[in-house]
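Supplementary Note 2. Why include the ligand at all?

Several targets in our set were suspected to adopt different conformations when bound, so apo predictions alone were not considered sufficient. For every target with a known small-molecule partner we therefore ran a joint prediction. The input for acetyl coenzyme *A is given below.
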Amino acid sequence: MSVCEFKPGLEGIPAAQSSISFVDGQQGLLEYRGIRVEDLAQKSTFLETSYLLIWGELPTREQLAAFEHEVRYHRRIKYRIRDMMKCFPESGHPMDALQASAAALGLFYSRRDLDNPAYIRDAVVRLLAKIPTMVAAFDLMRKGNDPVRPRDDLDYSANFLYMLNEREPDPLAARIFDVCLMLHAEHTMNASTFSARVTASTLTDPYAVVASAVGTLGGPLHGGANEEVIGMLEEIGSVENVRPYIEECLQRKAKIMGFGHRVYKVKDPRATILQNLAEQLFEKFGHDKYYDIAVEIERVAEEKLSQKGIFPNVDFYSGLVYRKLGIPTDLFTPIFAIARVAGWLAHWKEQLAENRIFRPTQVYSGLHEADYIPIEQR
Ligand code: ACO
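The joint prediction is reproduced in token form.
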């Protein structure tokens, strides 16, 4: 490949050397630090998986207990941040609220002491601990309610669901939510991770790194697709409407939300796990007719799109799980962000270890030696 060959979307161009996660898009394989995601989903927790991603190995019992303890006791947010969030418009999207609040954390904690491992650890702990509190606080405040204080006796995911719903969650619901966070924690060089690494490479503070990644995750071609999936299920409304809907979409070359992936050319392994979790939830808490619509979409789409390597991605079933957990649709992407903070921080740390500022090139396609035309002649 010539140095100047332009690849839209940088497809296939390595942007970093990384040992954090691995995807085999042909086999449908995803590993975090070499461990299959299916294994982690069965045996680990979100905080243990975050430790693995960020520090590169599974923690010992003592290391995990210390890390969980620190995260647990940093969940509260300063009243000034709460007051700032109270001024956000209630019609604003929670992703925008999260991006602004994550950046605001930097006002309080930024010292840019990037060579100091204690600073790195504090930043990791603060971001993992406070982001769920900020997501839950904005949701309650936009409804006119006071935010709920985090509960120190609850685990990470149970506490988040408690802050959101003001009641302790069922243990199965909390465990399933924790697995969802693990599945969304990291995924190689995607758009938001690339954003995080570019921002990290300027040696700015980690709050700015996370804020830039949150902004990137919000788009409908990336993390925002899980919300769009629910919109699509609502629009379709019944199993009978699926085929005409999909055929009409494909005819006007519209994308089916929750399908397709730059890397996976088979069903995303996370979609398979999420589908299974959705079924467990329906078994315990009652069926959701949107699940039948989703299964029918997958069947029709397989007929029409599998030859192009288009299959369900992580976003296709995650929305159904969150819906059953009683989570509002516009919080799906902020929840994705809560999880992905772990991956972004792992990449931030890896980028700092061998940093060089990102400064790609471009293929110029504009004019040269153009005349300046006076305004009255334009
Ligand atoms: N529905 C129908 N056709 C699709 C879909 C889809 N969801 N995705 C890709 N295709 C088709 C395209 O129309 C194109 O067909 P063509 O070659 O006949 O023109 C071909 O597959 C290649 O599509 P691209 O858009 O070039 O693929 P790319 O790798 O650039 O895009 C992406 C990947 C953005 C995920 C795309 O599949 C998409 O827009 N999907 C819907 C949105 C979505 O679910 N995003 C979440 C992704 S997972 C995540 O970010 C966490």
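The pocket of acetyl coenzyme *A is lined by residues 9, 221-223, 225, 255-262, 305, 308, 310, 313-315 (CB under 6 Å). The mean pLDDT is 95. Comparable summaries for the other entries are listed in the accompanying table.
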